[in-house]
Amino acid sequence: MEKSNHSTNKDLIRRQRQHELLIALIQQQDDLELMDAEGPRFDAKGGNAADPAKWLDRNRRVLAKYQSLVNSSITLDALLDSEGIQCD
Question: Is the pTM of this model over 0.85?
Fold first, then answer.
């Protein structure tokens, strides 16, 4: 049982470290966009409706950017862990 607690504590510390790395990476971004929550509207009148393909493509790019930041923080954490470097 003690081994399980040790493993859980280690996982919590790792998750916290990854979170801090991710926040640091986000803060370095100059023009980090947010996803557009409102989808394109399909008006029966055919007014100035946004192109659904452009909306979807933009949100995919934004999501890919965030995924890249998360992956970078995980990679940096693994590198720090392999080098035995402590982040405080």
Answer: no
- Residues of the chain predicted below pLDDT 70: 1-3, 42-49, 86-88
CA 23 to chain centre: 9
d(CA 50, CA 64): 21
Q: What share of the chain is helix, strand, coil (3-state, %, to 5)?
A: 65, 0, 35
Judged on CB neighbours under 10 Å (0-12, 13-18, 19+), 62 is middle
35 and 62 in contact (C-beta within 8 Å)? yes
Sequence ranges of the domains in the chain: 2-30+50-83
Candidates 56, 66, 64, 62; CA nearest to 26 is 66
